[in-house]
Amino acid sequence: MTKPSVLQRHLSDSLKLNEDKCDAFVNVWVNSAKGIVEHLRKRSLFPAQVSKMLEVKLFYTVSAN
To answer: pTM of the entire structure?
Structure first.
């Protein structure tokens, strides 16, 4: 996960946000990063792709027998 100091620097240098906005974003990140990342992991396509791949493999295995 991104460290707060790195996020602050990126927001300020790259996006040219003022200090108050940077502080607000960093504060939300510090308090919510774990939940945000977990939520995004759950919405990932990867688990669905793996599930579909297993279903297809099982179908071909059963069909071959």
So the answer is: 0.57
